[in-house]
Amino acid sequence: MSAIPPGSTIGILGSGQLGRMLAVAAAQLGYRCHIYAPESGPACDVAAAFTQGAYDDSPALYAFAGQVDAITFEFENVEPVAIAQLGARVPTRPHSLSLDIARYRVAEKEWAAQIGGRTAPWRGVSDLPSLETALADVGAPAILKTTLFGYDGKGQARIDSPADATAAWSEIGSPVLEGGFPAILEGRVDFFAEFSVIVCRGTDGATVAWDVPENLHREGILATSSVPASAPVLAQAEEATAFAVAMANKLGHVGVLTCEFFATPDGPVFNEMAPRVHNSGHWTIEGAVTSQFENHIRAICGLPLGSTTLTGAAVEMTNLIGADAGRWPALLGEGDAHLHLYGKHEARPGRKMGHVTRVRR
Ligand code: AMP
């Protein structure tokens, strides 16, 4: 398979901060980026071109595909069928299967089981009666989640006892999904830590993985990612990394794939995956020889992957959420903190405005 050489144009679906950091990494390797998204965003400020269009506007997507040499995405809520159509015109990586499986929580769990991974006990849910049956099977406490379009803990409702079922079903919006389960009930996992595995797979099937970050969430949003993880998490890293590599291989994935896990006394429990670069991998920009963004660009362009070795003894990434971004003067004053601001103008509560990475040598 021939490489897409530097100087070519990479199309990115999505205009958020992940697209921005992908475009910066691509620029360093001599590529131009062309963003396609319904609205302008942080990626547009650093890209060569921007096309405004909806993700279901087939003629506009097709025209976009004619202007780029490869396409990738930073955002899962693109229709897999659109990715498949684009793939017929220009190399589109990862391909639609990765997107299809990763964005549908039921398929994610089924694929995880097929490669021998542990998951929370779960049942697909279509309506209130099926939720009640699922609760009888899975037991409380549990979490009801929409199967599509969930992120940062959105589209989820806690169920502490069967009496909470009606409220939980209406809290997630009583969703409907033709041809699938609109919701999933998961038993609540009793974990002592959360961590993720970030792997990257090339067009030749070669894979690399970074050290696993231990992730702390606040109000459902990632707050910090730390490497190395604590000893009890590190003890589960090898098994979880083998799982993520097996998943990437089974999908025939090209690019970065992120798998999120709960660390439990029984071993790693797979929660969900993202077929893309991930917030818990931002630390790799300064904390690893090759960042998740650069390796993703290398992978989708058919280039050899770079080393994931740490650049220091320890790395910590802290998200700057909402008003946290106002701390930028103090962060710059630290001297050796790496500040990233995404150029967003409105610091709404819960909005990811930037992050800071500290590498301890
Ligand atoms: P998710 O959108 O699936 O990543 O869920 C967001 C957060 O909710 C996770 O990072 C966990 O902290 C928590 N969570 C999700 N699913 C479960 C579960 N089955 N058991 C316990 N906590 C969960």
How does this model look, in words?
It is a single chain. By secondary structure, this protein is an alpha+beta fold. It folds into three domains: 9-92, Rossmann fold, CATH 3.40.50; 121-187, ATP-grasp fold, A domain (Dna Ligase, domain 1); 193-360, D-amino Acid Aminotransferase, Chain A, domain 1 (2-Layer Sandwich). Helix content is 29%, strand content 28%. It has eleven helices and 17 strands. The protein has helices at residues 17-28, 58-65, 80-87, 96-102, 105-114, 128-138, 165-171, 231-251, 284-287, 292-300, 328-333, and strands spanning 9-13, 32-37, 49-52, 70-73, 122-125, 142-146, 156-159, 183-187, 193-201, 207-209, 214-218, 221-227, 255-264, 267-274, 314-321, 337-341, 352-360. Strands 9, 10, 11, 12, 13, 14, 15, 16 and 17 form a nine-stranded antiparallel beta sheet that branches. A four-stranded parallel beta sheet has the order 3-2-1-4, sandwiched between helices. A four-stranded antiparallel beta sheet has the order 5-8-6-7, sandwiched between helices. Strand 11 (214-218) and strand 12 form a beta hairpin. The two termini are 40 Å apart. The model has no long low-confidence stretch (mean pLDDT 96). Adenosine monophosphate (AMP) binds at residues 120, 143, 150, 153, 186, 188-189, 194, 217, 220, 260, 271-272.
